[in-house]
Amino acid sequence: MALVQSCAILPNFSGYKKQDDKASRIDTAVSTTSYQKLKDGARIDSGMFTVLIKDEDYYFGIPKTAFDKDFLLIHKVSSVPLAINEAGVNKGMNFENKVIRLMPRKNGKEIWVGEYDPKVDVKHQDAIAYSVADNYRASFIESFKVVCYDADSTTAFIKVNKVFDGSEKSFLDVFANLGLGTSPNKAISSIEQMKSFDNNIVIKSIYSTKVTEGNASIPISISVTSNIYGLPEQPMRPRFSDPRVGFFTTPRWYFSDKQQELEKRELVTRWRLEPKEEDRDRYLRGELVEPQKPIVFYIDPATPKQWRTQIIAGVYDWQVAFEAAGFKNAIVAKQLPDTVSFDPDDANVSSIVYAASSQANAMGPSVVDPRSGEILEADVIWWHNVMTVLNSWMRIQTGIIDTAARGNTFSDEKMAHAIRFVSSHEIGHTLGLMHNMGSSHAFPVDSLRSPSFTEKMGGTATSIMDYARFNYVAQPEDGVQVITPVIGLYDKYAIEWAYRWYDVDTPWEELPTLRQAIEKHQHDPNYWYGEQQDSKNVVDPRAQSEDLGDNAMLAGRYGLRNLKRMMPQIIEWTTVKGENYYKAGKLYMGGIGQWYTYADHVVNNIGGIYLENPVLGDGKSAYSPVSRATQEEAFAYLEEQVLRIPSWLFVPELMTKTFPLRDSPAGVFEYAPYNLQREFQYSLLYSLVRDERLLRMIEMEKLFGSEMTWTAMELFDALRKVIFEGTIQKKNLDLDTRMLQQNYIDVLMVSSNKTMEKINEKKIQEVNALLTAVNPSLCPWHEHGQTETRLRNVHVTGMARTSDMLTLKRGELLRIYELLKKASNTGNAATKAHYEDLLLRIGVTLNMNN
Fold this sequence. Notes:
The chain is of the alpha+beta class. It has 3 domains: about 5-230, no CATH class; about 265-535, Collagenase (Catalytic Domain) (3-Layer(aba) Sandwich); about 575-775 and about 800-850, no CATH class.
């Protein structure tokens, strides 16, 4: 089978019909004599296009050979003001890339720019190619008048100011893309610099506007570097993705005359790594060879010197994975002398960019050739304040077992070690890897307490692409030393799967070999890929963020042991004589947030479904329920840690000095402990009985029966027994018990009352914002510039209001109503008033008082 060619590179936008060479039809009435006048006194830069700069005017000299070629228009943020820096828009961020083509029109008097989505492929010799060309044509987005041609009429000159100085939005609508909803002010927007290279043009512009918030108008100026990048004449041979290995992808549709159905594929996003021609026989014999073109990252000279060595080490960590794919020295990182000019926004340069910002984050986006999935260039964007997150994680998760991870400031050596882990993780994204949130599930929980196991396997998971942070399971007496994630078995396997070179002509020929590579490990949990899920609606509890081990309940209990040890030491770890308790309050909030994280991991086992991507012959099921024994174990944990919140979380000695604190744009928020306890408990209860979870439980009961899975009715019975134990026994209820009953009844009422749904949504959003501030996620999946097209969503929400879910909730409210009526005249005054209030709430919600 010959490699198919994209209809996007057919010679005409309007259809697949034989055409004359457009260059030969240029109308010489467009004067070439004016070229001499144009270039007199101008600065000229030669490259892919000629760049001619005269006074304040900028011109492209486009050779005829560039017509109808594929170019990638790339935009990167180069500098920003404080106002949007603090909103998370920073140097290095890439947006609004588009594939364009230039073509002469009106007998060469104009050049039009067409934008197209090169998703569709077709073999030129097939009859359907004519229809594909007509039905998937490009759309024109801009036109330029030809000012003149050069002396031999081979190069057309156009003035390009309008698309780079804020006059037009056809090439870039910067403020819309950043969510500001305004337009550039032309008077204070301009082109700053333009330079031509062999395969791209780099244009630097500044765009200015004003954004109104309330009664204030804020000036915003953003520097943007645009690249017009010449895509390879011969696209890289693509590799078809498989949902069992986690890579970013780009879509491709294949048409042919022989089909009875359109073939839709996803192409793996990866670098073009190929052995040199003279080394191919050695490579195929299994020898390690250097690639024809290695992956090279440059370290931004703005990076503080004490971190550079370990950031570079994080890049070199991936060499062992590429060796599994047959390549040595496949990925390297280089420092540039401070005296060398460095432009990280040049699309020919892959770099690790250091952003001075209060944002605590990092990310690894890449620029991709959508025709083949080839990564052309990538950057790691490293926000300065990411170290505050690393400090918080290490203190809370490992401070008890690691005395070097307790202070407000770590030694440079300690922080550099953590920075290396983040560097490796983000480089993984630039190689095309998505998060593998299931890799931590491969390790039995107790193995994380073993020095020999953690030394052998490395860190906390089989993949550094998990959010398996630091080893919170290990106890002080265990002596575990390797507590930080590293490149693991899955990472080496995934890189080999995506990057091993095969001597074939088409991606279809690789498929049997690629499938065999997966089948070799298909029953080994060390190589399982668990895709990232919506953190607010986790379906498969094996693939969660921030968890460790194969049993969330056991891991959580080990984590709580260490957390309980830490709480009395917070002031000692954070405060010296003469200082206030601000840092103690911050660490206190982080500790409570960690308690919540453990509980959240446990909640997601209830109503959970194990998800697989089975193929015929592997013996796997696409859907299977979490066992009833595991769900009952999860409930026992929640009864102990959420329905009866442990008193050690709220240390009186600490609370007399500081409440839990959170920074915000409006200043420091101080959270009164009872209020915080109420909000966190409410959030967990809401998650526990949320509609989607109950509907999944109903589905699993119907498919597998109550012998194999825990039912929604059993969940409600268990909750009522615990939450209303004191009521059934006619005891006086303390404040914590009254709070628990109020929270539970409130979350049950939400589905029965639309007004309450809206109020509840706002309440949950506030809690989620607090949790995000306490435990931010680095490089969230949606920030990588590509969609996680394989993100699975088990759809159970259709017609939810007519399902058993609503019946169950209303039935539970009625049972509680009858229970409260019987107990309404028992207990002390506070207990009776509490019952009266709950009866009134339920009665109003269910219209029982009319």
